[in-house]
From TrEMBL:
The keyword Iron-sulfur does not apply. PANTHER family: BONUS, ISOFORM C-RELATED (PTHR25462), MEIOTIC P26, ISOFORM F (PTHR25462:SF296). This is Uncharacterized protein LOC111111534. It comes from Crassostrea virginica. Keywords: Metal-binding, Zinc, Zinc-finger.
Amino acid sequence: MAASKVGAHDVVTCDLCDKSTKQFCNSCQVSLCETCVEEHRDGFKSLSHEIVNFLERKSQLVFPGCKDHPGQRCEVHCNNCDGPVCVKCILSGPHKGHDVEELIETFERRRQETKRKTAEIKEKILPKYMKEDTDNERAMSRANSQFDDLGKECKSLRQSWHQEVDDIFDKMDFLSKTFKDQNLNRLRAYKNEIQNVISDINETLETNDKVLQSNKLSDVNNYLSNLNKVPNLPKNPDITMPHIEAKMNHEKELNIEMGNFKATLTQSSESSHSTDAPCLTPKTAVLLMDEVKVISTIPTNCDNLCGISCVGEAEGWVFGEHDNNISRIDMQGSVNDIVSTGPRYGPKAISVSNEGKLLYSISEEKLGSVKLVRTGWSEQLIIAPPWWTPEQLCCTRSGDILLNEKLWHWQWGGNIPKDNRIVRYHNKEKSQEINKDRNGVSIFMKGPRSLYMSENNNGDICVSDRNDRSVVVVNQTGRVRFRYDGVPARRKRPFDPRDIVTDAYNQIILTDYSNNCLHILDQNGQFLKCVEGCGLENPKGLSLDSKGRLWVGTKSKSIKIIKYMAPE
């Protein structure tokens, strides 16, 4: 039966329009309104139509109309032609003599056949395909997951391998820039020396010209020219140009050398997953002296001498724990210059720039800053953010400033330290912050004590963390390379690291205040030796002069100059 349209409140509507159904055509199984009855008959004039009241309708089969004999319905099925035909088609039409059967029988037979096939599809074929589809979905999911894992592994290996190569060449770039800075600094110092002599000569010549133009006998007779005092032309510094040599063994490793340093990238599964990038290591063995030598002991007036920064080979800036002055002293203890930081506040830390200028950090009232000392005055380079105080600082070979900044949190009873970080400043602007690792965990221990730091030749930043009683070394990106806890040195008292420096061999040297000694590590954190004795009473401040000698500040107000490396 044709499906009638159902409107609001289950009202059956006409199949030809939207009006309510009143009549029904049993022959065509169509619901009709009174208006559409005639339209239905006119549309199918050749067929007979049994129109009844809708409530008297019958559900019956609808026989199709014959194409060849209008007005006739097909009640027979021609098996020869496999199609419905009317009686006239069989008696006198094109299907005369063909094998026929009643259309209802054909309908029932094919209906049963379709029913059987439907049951077979539902019970056997469809479940089989559904199971196969489910299995395939699982296989797709499993394959997708496996290929995702494979892709992640490839990506991880790519990043690891690229990172190792990048680390090598980043360090080579850093080393190249270091060589460049060192040579240019020598040339700049030589240029300044030459220009100072030229200025003195011009001043003398100007004075001589004035004397020569004088008519007074006494001016000429009493004048002694300074031309005889002109120093000999200083020696022009040699430029050290490192040579890069690369050797590649396609089956084993890649070797790159620059000057006295080399890097090796080995092709192995272990290196691919290494947490440490390859490091530049000295090509020749490091020659540590079995017995170090105290070159000199410099007396000072600094109590608990905590800050030392060498200038050249024979001078250094120093200050004590409660000093408001920073003094420039020589190896005899003579004070050649004094910088006052004010009547109320003393320096937190000091460092010397590549140009030989003194820098110091200081906290005044609520303002913390880093200042650069110029002739007769101090220039403010960096202002610490609110609630952060500047502590220890370090000038890098590239001219950047590494500054330890400590965050304080006020609570009833006083301030407590909340965070500790290292900030790199480039051209007075913050360019890097070292505080947390890749997992968001703090690299440095929270606490009231400062972080001492030094930059190594390979770009690593070596940090003495007193709060954690350890040394932390991070690479240029701030990734932790290793930690050192002092245990290999086998000291009696707990490890108490203070100031820290790095030398030309990438060795890490630090003072151990409580154990009256120095620890020396290689660039990978391997313990090499302890320097003890030598009158190292509670060593704190530490610096290296241009000859590679250690200046160690002690609690006894003296500085020990120590030679610890043997000639190569």
